[in-house]
Design goal:
Organism: Nocardioides aestuarii
Distance between the termini: 25 Å
Order of helices and strands: EEEHEEEHHHHEHEHEEHHEHEEEEEEE
Radius of gyration: 24 Å
Pfam family, one: ABC_tran
Number of strands: 18
CATH class of the largest domain: Alpha Beta
Helix content: 25-40%
Protein name: ABC transporter ATP-binding protein
GO molecular function: ATP binding
Strand content: 25-35%
CATH superfamily of the largest domain: P-loop containing nucleotide triphosphate hydrolases
InterPro entries: AAA+_ATPase, ABC_SmlMolc_Importer, ABC_transporter-like_ATP-bd, ABC_transporter-like_CS, ABC_transpr_FbpC, P-loop_NTPase
Oligomer: single chain
Number of domains: 2
CATH topology of the largest domain: Rossmann fold
CATH architecture of the largest domain: 3-Layer(aba) Sandwich
Number of helices: 10
């Protein structure tokens, strides 16, 4: 298991990571999620041993990694662009480290890994002939070849287009599970984090503000800013939160976050509202509604709904699409 204890990292005299504490359990995939510039890639480089610590400690299975150089940590790092050797075939890229070590059964291991990442017939291809997604698969196979104790992934899908990124995220989850590899992933994309990881750490301005199982973080964001970053559309606090929950017949809370689809049009719904605007999309009608004592909120309706601006409507509140913020 990897443990970070109050880790701080400075670059050019500026504190980039502050007092980061995190545990990455054996066999888990943990995502550090945060906006660009929050320090997550710097944190990953510190774990790899590329950046020195200004304070705190890194431990692997209880052993302090201070003074252990990068090449002796037993970790592998996958960058955004894969960084393949363009003059070597795919097979020789994957088996590069194994051949340096004169490991027996290298060809068999390469074939196994290419099959694992879904490229069984690509051993003789050159990197220049591959798509972006294929290059990342090869980079992943090369990193797994040496059976690292920990795999570090630095925004591995960010250079891909949205559709390919979504498909490869699912494949990445499968590959890591099948390989049984402990992994630490950093990303700015919460959908990617939720698709790949089973644990998540939210990072903001150099600090880890929350970490835990995906469900725990999703159901109870640490604060309003975290909730909005995770994709909740609206955060209500104080009397507005109390009023909404009371009208919907749900337990009281001081701060609540709502997904865009938490409120749905329902003539018999307990929450009454007036439609301010309605906009049709290919999948649904998106509404902006006003609830007395609460304010303007997002809501959705089916495409056959006939709600327009000025209409009085009933709303159903889906409790699975809202979260109590800051709940222990």
């Amino acid at each position: 298991m990897l443990e970070l204890a109050d880790v701080s990292v400075d670059l050019e005299g500026e504190r980039i990571v502050s007092d980061a504490t995190l545990a990455v359990p054996d066999g888990s995939v943990t995502a550090v999620l945060g906006p660009s510039g929050c320090g997550k890639s710097t944190l990953l480089r510190a774990v790899a041993g590329i950046e020195p610590l200004a304070a705190g400690a890194l431990r692997w299975d209880g052993a302090d990694l201070a003074g252990v150089p990068t090449h002796k940590r037993g970790f592998a790092l996958v960058f955004q662009d894969g960084q393949l050797f363009d003059h070597l075939t795919v097979g020789r890229n994957v088996g590069y480290a194994l051949r340096l070590r004169r490991a027996p059964g290298t060809d068999r291991r390469v074939a196994e890994l290419l099959d694992l990442v879904g490229l069984p017939d690509h051993a003789d291809r050159m990197p220049a002939t591959l798509s972006g997604g294929e290059r990342q698969r090869v980079a992943l196979a090369r990193s797994l070849a040496v059976e690292p104790r920990l795999l570090l992934l630095d925004e591995p899908l960010s250079a891909l287009d949205a559709g390919l990124r979504e498909r490869l995220a699912g494949d990445l989850q499968r590959i890591l599970r099948e390989a049984g590899t402990t992994a630490l992933l950093v990303t700015h994309d919460h959908e990617e984090a939720f698709a790949v990881a089973d644990r998540i750490a939210v990072m903001r301005r150099g600090r880890i503000v929350q970490d835990g199982d995906l469900g725990e973080v999703w159901r109870a964001p640490a604060d309003a800013q975290t909730a909005l970053f995770l994709g909740y559309a609206t955060v209500l606090d104080g009397a507005r939160a109390v009023r909404l929950l009371a009208e919907a017949g749900l337990p009281a809370a001081d701060v609540v976050a709502l997904r865009r689809s938490a409120l749905t049009l329902d003539p018999d719904g307990p929450l009454r509202a007036r439609v301010r605007e309605a906009r049709a999309t290919p999948d649904q009608v998106r509404l902006r509604v006003h609830v007395d004592g609460v304010g303007d909120l997002d809501a959705v309706a089916s495409l056959d709904a006939h709600a327009g601006a000025g209409d009085e409507v009933g709303l159903h509140v889906d409790h699975t699409r809202l979260a109590v913020v800051g709940r222990p």
